[in-house]
Amino acid sequence: MKASAAFISAFLLVTPAMAQEMQHAPANCPADAKPLPASLSAWTDKASLGAAGDAAGLNAAALMPGKAVTVSLRHTREVQYIVQPE
Question: For residue 78, which of 25, 65, 74, 85 is within the disulfide window of CB 3.0 to 4.6 Å?
Fold first, then answer.
């Protein structure tokens, strides 16, 4: 029981670090892709958005429903938390 708990703890600590290091190639739509329906047309026009690093930047980092964005996340050490995560 202790060995499996230690393994799970180690896995949970290592997994986020591994995920940050993974680089993914952007997905490309196939040439014969059908156009999006009118209700989803805003998804073809992506905006760039940076994650907030402190409380003052929250309004500028707001996500809008129905709008596609490419988000740049910050490293944890660059974020000033109002309440520290557990």
Answer: 74
pLDDT of residue 42: 78
CA max distance for the chain: 55
Strand partners, 69: 47
The residues, ordered by sequence, that sit 6+ positions from 69 with a Cβ below 8 Å of its Cβ are 46, 47, 48, 49, 63
pLDDT at residue number 44: 80
16 or 47: whose pLDDT is higher? 47
Residue with tokens 């958005």: 49
DSSP bridge partners of 72: 50
- Number of C-beta neighbours around residue 51 at 10 A: 15
pTM greater than the 0.70 cutoff: no
Nearest-Å Rg of the Cα atoms of the chain is 19
